[in-house]
Specification:
8 strands; eight-stranded mixed sheet; alpha/beta; Rossmann fold
Amino acid sequence: MRFPALDGYPLGGFLHVPSDTRPAQAVVFATGGGVRAELYKHFLSYLAGEGLAVLAFDYRGIGESRPASLRGFTAGLEDWAEYDAGGAIAWMAARYPGISLTGMGHSIGALLIGAAEPATRLEQLVLIAPHIGFHADYGWAVRWLVRLGFRLAGAPLRWAFGYFPASVLRLGEDLPNRVAQQWATRSLGPAHRADSGPAAQREERALERIASFRKPALVLSISDDTWATDVGVRRFLHLYRSLLAVRLVIEPRDDCSIGHFGFFRRRFSGSYWPIPVRFMNAGHSPA
């Protein structure tokens, strides 16, 4: 699908719909930072099979929303949150009026989904492996991978390429310069700002919306996740301090690692994937 962000930037994404019935509910899915929406397709198709219409979108600069060249392309986390997530919510609300709209996010997308003004149209949230991108909360190996990649190598690489070639470092999709700089300085986190001015003011407003978001939410975290660690999830919940949240910690079974992305593997379609569906269908109860 193609649809406009709130500032008019053309975004791309994928709409998964039930094959033989009108959707009972609609979902906007916000991906992890630097992760293409296409990579979640099996999980999203499962949700469609459960009667949900699901839009998964790529932030500007990523995947289906990447311009012809990233060199010199300007985009920040405040754009991903306010304009891109906000545009996706507004588009789905207009396409499916009169039915329940849920915001769902993975990783940093769990933070961004509630940051835009249209998020007030969401009736509930499902947040999977959420964190805020604060380096000190990561597991040791991830912490140093991010610090070496985004901090040490980041500045010269951004200067040489005109963007951050994250794919070369096996850190996900290539990123616009500003997003990479914000990630290096832990922006959109607890009192950490990459700069001042209008963009920083937009970040402040986004954080205010997050802090005041008062809706039911299911927070799913994984005990062996080295990106969204327990302290990271708790810090995330401190930002979303008004949520009516139920947190469920998934423990790997039979020495089977899950980690940060494992929840979306098809092998867990019968065990973990029904959990968010039950939450949405049963009066906000994860049981």
